[in-house]
C-alpha cells in the first residue's frame, strides 16, 4: 500500500487539502495528516481537519509522497525546518510532491525548484521563477516527481496527475 503525507496548518484552502486526501484514499493510498502538533486545524472557510501526528513523528523514508495544500497555510508551513527537510528528502528520493496554489512557497523555501517546470497561483509566479523554476500558466504541470496546479478549478487535472505519478513510482 502506498503512503502519502498531507501537510496541515491553519488557513489551508479547504478544497486543495481535502480533494487530494479523498481522491488518494479512494485509490487505496494511506494518507496521513501531519501538522506542527496533534489537534484540530481549520481551513480558510472553516472546515476542520483533525491531525494525529506532528512533523517530528514522521520521516520521508516511510512515505511515497507528500502533499502541500494551498491557502495561507504554506506561508506558515515553510517556517518549520522539519517540513523543509521532509520536502527536500522526498525530492532527493524522487518521491511524489504535490503542490497547488500558494503551496509553491514551501517548495521555494525547501530549495527544490531549480531547473524544474511548475505552475502555481499567478500571485507567486515571481517567487517560483526567482527560486529557479520555469513557471507555466497551465492547469497542471508534471516535472518528474513534482505535480503542481494553479487553483481549485484545476483540481480534476491535479488529482489525475497525482494518482498517475504515484502509480508509476
TrEMBL record:
Q: Which domain of life is it from?
A: Bacteria
Q: Which Pfam families match?
A: DJ-1_PfpI
Domain named DJ-1/PfpI is located at 2-164
Which InterPro entries does the record associate with it?
C56_PfpI-like, Class_I_gatase-like, DJ-1/PfpI
The record's Gene3D superfamilies line, in alphabetical order, gives: 3.40.50.880
Kindly list the GO molecular function terms attached to this UniProt entry. Answer: transferase activity
**Record key words, sorted:** Glutamine amidotransferase, Transferase
Q: To which protein family does this belong? A: Belongs to the peptidase C56 family.
Name-wise, this protein is: Glutamine amidotransferase
Q: Which organism is it from?
A: Anaerovibrio lipolyticus
Amino acid at each position: 500500500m502506498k503512503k502519502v503525507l498531507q501537510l496541515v496548518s491553519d488557513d489551508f484552502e479547504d478544497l486543495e487539502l481535502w480533494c487530494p486526501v479523498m481522491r488518494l484514499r479512494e485509490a487505496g493510498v494511506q494518507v496521513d495528516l501531519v501538522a506542527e502538533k496533534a489537534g484540530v486545524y481549520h481551513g480558510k472557510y472553516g472546515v476542520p481537519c483533525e491531525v494525529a501526528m506532528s512533523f517530528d513523528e514522521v520521516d520521508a523514508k516511510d512515505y511515497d509522497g507528500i502533499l502541500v495544500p494551498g491557502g495561507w497555510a504554506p506561508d506558515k508551513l515553510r517556517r518549520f525546518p522539519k517540513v523543509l527537510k521532509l520536502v527536500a528528502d522526498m525530492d532527493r528520493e524522487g518521491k511524489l510532491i504535490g503542490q497547488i496554489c500558494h503551496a509553491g512557497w514551501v517548495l521555494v523555501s525547501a530549495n527544490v525548484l531549480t531547473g524544474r517546470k511548475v505552475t502555481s497561483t499567478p500571485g507567486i509566479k515571481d517567487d517560483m521563477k526567482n527560486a529557479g523554476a520555469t513557471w507555466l500558466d497551465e492547469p497542471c504541470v508534471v516535472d518528474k516527481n513534482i505535480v503542481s496546479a494553479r487553483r481549485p478549478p484545476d483540481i480534476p487535472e491535479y488529482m489525475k496527475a497525482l494518482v498517475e505519478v504515484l502509480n508509476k513510482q
